[in-house]
User: What shape does this take?
Amino acid sequence: MTFVYLLVFGFAATAVLGLITSWIDRKVTARVQYRVGPPFLQPFIDIVKLLGKETLIPAGASKGTFLIAPVIGISGVIAVATLLWVNQFFSEGFMGDWIVTIYLLAIPSLSIILGGFASRNPLASLGASREMKLVIAYELPFILAALVPVINAHSIRLSVIIDSQAGGVFAGSLSGILALIVAILCVQAKLALVPFDIPEAETEIVGGALIEYSGPGLAIFRLMKNMLFFTLPFFLIILFFGGLRLNGINILWTVLEYVGIVAIITVIRNTNPRVRIDQAVRFFWGPMTLIAIVAVVLALKGL
Amino acid sequence: MGKTIIPIGPYHPLQEEPEFFTLTVEGETVVDIDMRMGYNHRGIEKLSEMKTFENSTFVVERICGICSTSHPYAYTRAVEDIFPMEVSMRSKYIRTIIAEGERIHSHLLWLGLAGHFLGYNTVYMWAWKLREEILDVMEILSGNRNAYAMFKPGGVRRDINAEDIPISLKKIDSILPTLDMLKKAVLDDPVLHARLKGVGVMSYQEAIDFSALGPTSRASGVARDVRKDSPYGAYQEMEWDMIVTKNGDVFDKAVIRILEMFEAAKIMKYCLNNLPDGEIDAKIKDVPPGEGIGHIEAPRGETFHYVKSDGTNRPVRHKVRAPTFMNLPTYKATIKGQTISDATIILAAIDPCYCCTERIAVKDGKGRMLYNGQDLIRLSRSKTEKIRQRMGGR
Assistant: This one.
């Protein structure tokens, strides 16, 4: 049964939904920029095409680490997606799966750092070190924001968090709104999208940690990022909107919530230039952490 | 912390031209920069010396795809400088219109690219979409979107039709509100302020020392503009402002370019409204022996041409200096102490055009000149002769 969960929900469903999300993102971006945008199947075609390309390993790179890094990354996403799906539809979570989710969500970033440093390319290690700084920057406000639903639900079980929002979603309270804002900006950084695409920065460090990847390795990293693009909004919906509700009129609400979060992320990415890494760190440790702390205090006071 | 070398180029997604910078970095801080050019030497000057005075105009037009009018303008002025002659007022107005249209589309192109380098692709696409509109105006006026082929020594090749003027004026007026919106979007964006202010600062003295040109120098407070300092064309005929700012950072360079577009539109509109009657071509028959210089304010700064004639129908010497040649060394002043994140936008801030700048001289490691242009021509001829003999010869 675990195998089915992993393969069907964790991988297949997440990958398909993630690729569709990335198509929505690309299409909306294109329309904002007076372009036509890619056809619906383009993200799928991209991945399939990349899988068929040659894998080049740079001379002097740490071969094993270089090849294993994308696999580690995608395993992390599959694990976290499975955990979320299982909690959503089968209520088969366990005590403390909220903590495990937070941990597993850091694995994709770690795999990028690993791959970057293993490439033996100055630009890749620059990208990896930027990713490292960014992780340090956004993790604290992200965890604080994710703590608000835990305080409201009095549980670190995701299924309990979902169930306790049956009467009213957490995003309806003041603390929930503040935490949601912080969480969305942290998700922006987790997905490495503008203004926080500092680790990749195509025009500065030519793709950063991914510069030496080609073929299946790059395909897996791309797929990992697309799957994250579904998983992170999904996690936010579980935390702040009581999960995906697929009964009656609630389907409409669920779709609206999901597309709304994705649209906000896309709009932020299209109306901002890239910030510098020191500015990003100051932004997350300053205002974002403060807002998150305020949200936590308000949640403790029951607001 | 150890020093690392970060290469930019010769092939790099940053700028679609062959150039090579080696940034010496400590952590994320750039401590030194080394520049290497010469990947795309095209022998334009030599080519130009093999063509007639009139045909050379088309060669110099292809020095740069963006300033495709600046080079012919400077070249024709150089030829007209060889002997005393007067270009008709109407052709001066037409030249000014084309030159200012080019300034608008060149600055829009830079604005888009600057946005792209900052990861702000929306500005990139919007600026380039707006650029299409101004290219349409240029097509109405000259028949071409780029490389207008309007210039010839002694005047212009094509007249502007009276019925095209109202259409062009209407089109320019329709562009201005969008341009204004783009200006507000760029100049009032707090994130852009955070990214660009105080970045890549060049002081007044450094701008003087490096002999920076155009918007690069005007951003540092050096009021230097050929259109004002040594007026040509129709620039004396109307009121317009030279935009000068004080801070010398990347933000000020952007401000200068954005505000200059409005001035350029103003000049274009004045010229179109007040186009005088008259001939458009002085019909030069012979160019007497002598030498002449022509300089004009291109979008990137002063473009300078020198032409020498020996009385035949070809220039015996033609020398080109593109503005980037003077602006490029300012990197030494602007980039040191900045982070790698800012390096790209600082490199882009002078609006570089490397292929226009390419020239060649061979030096040894100590900086002594081994071959100059004449020596290289001699070497090339002897090589050709050797190859010819090896292949059977004539």
